């Protein structure tokens, strides 16, 4: 999960993106999953919970596949750094103080 965040993050923001994804997945995701799973198990029982969450997982898997295929057709990959959707535009040092680079989203 964090390796994907590293791949799609703009240059210089790899560690930040990995931290955000890790916190969302391991912190928020696990807490909400335990809370919802415990509530469903207590009210409906284990058999219902297993079937409902299995169906939910299959639906999300199909949705993920469709979104992934659509994104593959829509996102242009930069050939230099193989990062989808990000181009770095270099500016001359006299144009920008400190010789900074501008990150532009393409699409």
Radius of gyration: 20 Å
Main sheet overview: 2 strands, antiparallel
Uncertain stretches: 87-95
The helix-strand sequence is: HHHEE
β-strand percent reads 5-15%
The structure class reads mainly alpha
Helix content: 55-70%
C-alpha geometry: flat
- The number of helical runs is 3
| Major sheet strand order | 1-2
* Number of E-type strands: 2
Describe this structure in words.
- By secondary structure, the protein is mainly alpha-helical.
- The protein is built from three helices and two strands, in the order αααββ.
- The protein has helices at about 1-10, 15-45, 45-75, and strands at about 85-90, 100-105.
- It is flat.
- The relative contact order is 0.10.
Short characterization:
Helices cover 63% and strands 7% of the residues. It contains three helices and two strands; from the N terminus they run H-H-H-E-E.
Topology:
Blueprint (H helix, E strand, L loop, with lengths): L1 H7 L5 H31 L1 H29 L11 E4 L12 E4 L2
Antiparallel strand pairs: 1-2
Helix pairs in contact: 1-2, 2-3
């Amino acid at each position: 999960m964090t390796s994907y965040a590293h791949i799609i993050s703009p240059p210089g923001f790899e560690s930040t993106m990995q931290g955000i994804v890790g916190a969302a997945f391991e912190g928020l995701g696990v807490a909400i999953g335990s809370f919802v799973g415990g509530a469903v198990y207590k009210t409906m029982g284990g058999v219902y919970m297993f079937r409902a969450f299995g169906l939910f997982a299959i639906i999300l898997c199909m949705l993920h596949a469709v979104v992934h295929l659509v994104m593959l057709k829509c996102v242009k990959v930069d050939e230099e750094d193989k990062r989808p959707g990000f181009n770095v535009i270099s500016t001359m040092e006299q144009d920008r103080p400190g010789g900074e680079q501008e990150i532009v989203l393409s699409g």
